[in-house]
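User: Run a structure prediction on this.
Assistant: Running it now.
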Amino acid sequence: MTRTFSRMAIILAIIRKDLKEFLREKLFSFLSALALIMYIVLFWLMPVTVDEKLTLGVHHVGLEPLMATLTEAYGDGVIIKAFPSCPDLIRAVSGKGERTDKVSMGICFPEHFREKLETGGQPTLQVYAAPEVPPELRRTMSGFAQDIAYAAIGEDLPVTLPEKEAVVLGRDRSGDQIPFRDRMLPFLVVLVLFTESLVLASLISGEVHDRTLAALRVTPAGIGDILSAKVLFGTLLAFVQVMILLIAVGAWGPHRGLLVVFMLLGALMASGVGMLTGAAGKDFMGTLLLGILCLVPLTIPAIATFFPGTVSVWVKALPSYGVVQGIMGLTTLDWGREQLRVPLGLVCLWDLIILGMGMRMLRHRGGTHESP
């Protein structure tokens, strides 16, 4: 028992030393606090609602009854706005018209549109779209224009639709879209976690370069004590800051305990990355470069949450993917324990791999010194 307390006292002493070095480095401590404050402010500045309605500009002559019917039919999701001429509609879509006339897409009906259809003609129906409109929506509006053409001559579409026109696989988020602010939260969490890994990497690199780690080997501290202290210090440094972020933005779901577990595992991963890059770096700039090279791919799964849809297989293979899935599932998607088993397993697996590599590298460098 006494030996256990002695080991713990040594580990805590090394952690206190690392904390003093962190606070002594005014640049790192200041930038860590400033970045955390900026992330919190950025989160609250992001929009909290999503406008799911599309404003569609239309120019037509003599189709007032039809447009009234379409406005009533599509009123929940599409706002139809009439324009007196095609040039006015084009200016509104391109953003060159009045601010109140701005529309994302527009349909221009030529003169005598109905008459040409009824006599077997093929009038041109022009669809305009703003540059930011995605291709999927453009194709949808082209199909919408064809619906109007059939409705104009009183004919049904040449297909048979089932009673339920669309079967939604998974949770239907119509009217309940995720705001961009909530999609950005995993990105901010990943930034906080792995930015702190740069701090740990810098401290370790300095100790390797100054032979502080080698000097510690002369004291009663063994290599196991040193490695344990580095893991604990790096984990606590990242964990405390990410918890401050989550508390400040109010990102708490029904499973708070699981969220804490995911953040702790993410902080362990950040600690492993810091040990690995700190031990591998030759000097400060080399360590910083290695840290940034690790940070960039680790943010990719978080960036993928900005764009709804299925992510690529290679993104799922990145270490931070499980952390991002856990954050998104617990704070936004209302996932339960069953859905979180795979992300939790992935995070644990990557923690073992990265921590093992980092500790092995630091153990190797701890007793040696290479001239810069």
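The longest helix spans residues 180-209.
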